[in-house]
Structure formats: structure tokens, C-alpha cells
């Protein structure tokens, strides 16, 4: 072949192309060098930011095959953290975006897990097992990135009791496996809403494993998958937008459930506040550049315990109902859990805040028991229970949730203060059993090894402990001390002295079999969006504890040039460490103080640690922070006490058969009830062929098709599972017909999974469904 020659013009153009390529490579290298340790990687799907709005990703799970082999659960089959190295994917191109605001992504995914044969997490009440579902539980993720994509933060609010350390570690490891260093321990916050009606079983420390009646890998994996999916959806849907902040009070939805503890705080400090609860709600409004709605995050201090400890239906309680209402309003035409708009009602300093606003009363006499130890003259502390504003717990949940929804909606609509400025994050792992606290310039104190006091066993007015313990105990009991000493051994003099005046019931920090009973290593974390700082609290701060931390962190920022910062307390984040009271509240030793596991100086330690993080962000010295001791990830956890057994249908019946049909005709306000031959619903957390246990469907004559109007995430439906003997069970579906129901022909469908196992073969999970005869809804 003849040798190719180039003209002078061609040579010049080639030279120009080479020079432009070299300059581009140099600029790219400079960009990624100056962006510090924060690197941007494509995910496995090759998603990029876009300057034009993207269609929202589907807000739900994809179906799986109808039959899967199921291996027996053993102690050695507990989940392990993903041990994969970061992906080596091609970096995303730099985003030369010339707009004011942030890249914003929102995502929501189901994380419900088991709805049967598992304890509900929150009340620690033996026998309060899940037996069905009222509403689905969701993980709601929000990703914010600077215009060039260099820095980003992730906030995830999850409809669970609290985030466990094991859950966070597994999520972080899987994020690293998929995204490399894009989403990390410092810029990802996982926060639980603190519903007391979600499944337990996703912990690794012995106190919580025992309270959960074992570790459920089935539920753990479903939660992890849901959290990751919500982040994936948010990552995929990122688009340029703006964030606005607004604040306002919510009245008539809270009381302080430990007012006698609150009164221990200095009168001069209490005089600065008009209430013994924090009434202020903080709302972030997220929109795209066209002003179209993307999502909302709200922080407000309230316990999601409108559903009391007699409840057996999995649900997201009052804060979840607020999310449900706002998402339904913004996502018109979508079923619950679907649609592009995502609304999170996140937890805050709710430690001593109850939604049961009628206050504590003796349920046997009706008289008030609002006293220092929350006891009744007849029946003691077990009779002293606070009541919500409704006729029952369902009604109370709706009343409180609707009030929060209404206020958040108003604040969202009127939000005009734009959040601007850089994004930053700081994180440390800290050994909370060994923090030296500076009380003043000359005196120090230390935190303690974990321990629970006597009043922990008393419970609260929202859910009593069941045994004859009372709140406010500052002395032990020889009877219980003897039982503890014989079974667990005696607490050391060191731990007893450190925790005074707490009388120690359980010296958990000195117990390590089969694994440590409480965490030693705890996360402290702050992320900032311009003038907003989100403090990730690993537990439940009381009202005054939250006020002190906010004030201290705000002052620390101000002292280093970051004036007028809004500091929010985000509760139940990253790892659970029970409660954090003020030093003064600790002296009263009510439930919250007895559950302050690191001793009387716990709050002072956290204030010191969070001020250190704030200083690092304000002075741009985050890189100098020590990483801290990495927390453990335990193997061979205690398996659930409830065994997996084969499901059976009655002779002559099959799964999904109708045992009790609906009546032929109903009116608005009535309840439709259909009973089916059922199977254990926990099978459905393992095989997700169906995304709901039920549907209510209306016949559309014009299209001669059935239209789904409700599913098991709808507030007006309830799914009850009735466990029988030898694998037999029934499933009851209720539809509480709402005022909005249109007259017409309806039917109810039931979707389930049964466990089958033939001799010498592994168990399989098979999907089935059942359909009721039709019925009619008529006008009054």
C-alpha cells in the first residue's frame, strides 16, 4: 500500500486536534485533583445528570419468579457485609452546568419486610408479633449535588423503628460496591422515622436481638434492598433544581411525657422557651428549574406511637400517614407508594415527646396519673397510659398525621427562602464508652460503659413495661439485683459509680455473650447544605437535649464565620443508642434517663463531638479529622425463635379460595370483609412475585376491564393473617369504604406465597392468588 502523505492544512488540523485533546485532559485532571477525595463515578447503568427533566423511575420493586428454593436458616447464615472492592468505573464527565441551585434526585422504594411471625420493634412487648399490614413501609432518599457534581450529600428517611449499625454498614458496603467513593460514610445519612409498628430483627447487638426474638435475615435483606433501591432511583432521577426552607409551629399534636424530668432543667433555661416540647417544624422544598415539585423533607419532634402496643399490623404510624397524604395529593392518579413526588416526615428530638395528647390516665379509674413516677393508686404503673385524641388508635393516628401533613403543606407552599451555598459533610466513629468531657476549663468527666437503669423496665406512658417497675427509681431492688447477679453476674463498682444516680438493672457494657449487648462505637455526623446543617443523632434526644445541641453547633459555626446557620436534629440515625437526656434530667431517672446508656455526661460528650465536626466543616479541615475505630460486623447471630413450616390448605381447598365472601351490596362508610384460605405472609418477603397482598378493583364498563383503586399501602385497607395449627391459616382483607369511593361493581383480590417442601427436596416458595365474588357499592 502506498504511504499516505498529509498536506500542510491537514498537518495543522491534526496538530490542533492533538493540542485541544491535551488541554482537555489537563483540565479534567485538574478538576478531579482539586475536587479532593470526592470522586464521581458512573453507576452500573451508566446514568448521568441531565439538564433536561428525566422521567421518574418506577417507584416499586420488580417481580421475581414464582418459585424459589429456600435454604434453612442457621446461625451461620446471617448476612455478611459485602466484601467487594470499589468498582473501577469510568468517571462521569465534568458537569459544566451554569445554573444556580443543586442537582436534586428523589426516590422511594418498599422496605416492608416481614409482616408476620416477627416482633414489632419499639415497645419491646413480648407477644406483639406482626399479624398483617395496615400500610407499607418505605425508604425515601434525597440526593443533593453541587452544579458541577463535585460534592453531594444523601439523606434517607426510612419507615422503621431506628437504623441499626448492621443495616448502615451493609448499605454503605453495597453502595461502595456499586458507586465506588461517590456515596460514603460521611455524606450518607440513614434516619429511621421511629414507627413502633415496623418489623424488628435487623440488629446485631444482643439487647436488640433478644428484643427482636432473633435476627431475621429475611427482613434485614429486604430493608437493605429497599434502602439501596431508593438511593438508586434518586441517583437516576437527578436533575437541576432549587431547594427552599421554611419553618413554622405545629400546635395541638404533642405533649411532654416526662414533664417532671424537664422541670429539673434550670429555670433560667426553661424561661427562654414557651413550651416543654419543640413545636417548630422545618421543611425543605425541592423543585426543578421549572418550579415543578420534586420532594419534601420535614423534621418535627414527635413519637410515632399513636398506634399503641396492642397493635399487630405493620404500619408507618402518624408520620407515615402524613407522608401518605402529601404524596397522594401530589401524585394524583397514582396508587400509594407510586408517583414521582416523595415526601419524608423525618424524626427529630422526640425523646420525651408523645402524640397521645389527652395525657396519662389510670385506665381502671379514669383519674389522672400525671405524677413524678407515672403510677396509679390501684394497679401501679401498669395502669397509667396516655391516650390519643381519637376514638381508637387508628383514628388518633389519622388526626395527628393529618395535622402534620396540613402544616407541612402550608410551609411547603409558602417557602421562599432559597438554600444556597456549598455542600459539605463530616463523620467520625467514636468510642462512646471512653470520651473525656470538659465540664469547664479545669474539670473533666468521662462517659461510661453502657448500662440500663431500673426505670428502663418501667416503660413509658405510651407503652408500659409490664412488670412492676416504676419510673423515677434512684435505688435498686434486692430481689431483681439477686436475679441479675445469678444469671448475668454482678456489675462492677466502676460501672455503678460512673452511672450514679442510676441504679443499674443491666450492666450491658460488661456483657459480651454471645456478642456485645450494646454498641461501643457510635457514628457522629453532620452534613451541610449552604446555611442548613443536619446533625445525625444516633438515638433519641429529649427536647432540652436537642435545644442545647442545636445552640452549641450553631454557635460553633458562627465562631468560625458561618453565621445564621439553621441546625436541625435528625434522630434515630446510623446506629441506635437509646436515649440522651440532659445532665439535670438524668438525676430524675425516669425512663429516658434510665435509658441514657453512656451515663450522665452523654449529652455533653455529644455536644463536644458535634462541635468538633462543625468546626472542621467551617474551617475546611474535615480531611484532618480522625476516622475513629471502625465498628464490628458480627457473624452467627441468634436465629428467629419461630421456625419456618410448610403451609397447608384445608382438605378440598386450595390457597386463595374464598371462605367468606363479601355481601352483595355496601354503602360508603361501611366495611367490606373477605376471608381467604391463606399462607404465611413472611414467605412474600422472600419471594416478591406480587408487590401487594391485596387489591380492591372496580369494573370499568367502558373498557371492560378491572381498575385497581386500592392496594395494601392504602390507608383504607387492612390485611389480617390468622395463624392456625399445623400450617393452616386464613387471611382477612378489609376495605373501609371511603367517602371518595365511586358507585359501581367491585372485587377484592388476595396475593400470597405458600411454602412447600417435598421429601428429600429443598423448600420452594410458590405464588398464588384469590379473587372474591363481585359486590356493589351504591349511593346512600
TrEMBL record:
List of residues binding Zn(2+): 194, 303, 540, 579
Phylogenetic classification of the source organism: Eukaryota, Metazoa, Chordata, Craniata, Vertebrata
Organism of provenance: Colobus angolensis palliatus
Name listed for the protein in its UniProt record: Neutral ceramidase
Transmembrane segments: 12-32
GO biological process: ceramide biosynthetic process; ceramide catabolic process; long-chain fatty acid biosynthetic process; sphingosine biosynthetic process
Free-text comment on the cofactor: Binds 1 zinc ion per subunit.
Domain spans labelled Neutral/alkaline non-lysosomal ceramidase N-terminal: 102-608
Cellular component per GO, a single term: plasma membrane
Active site: residue positions: 354
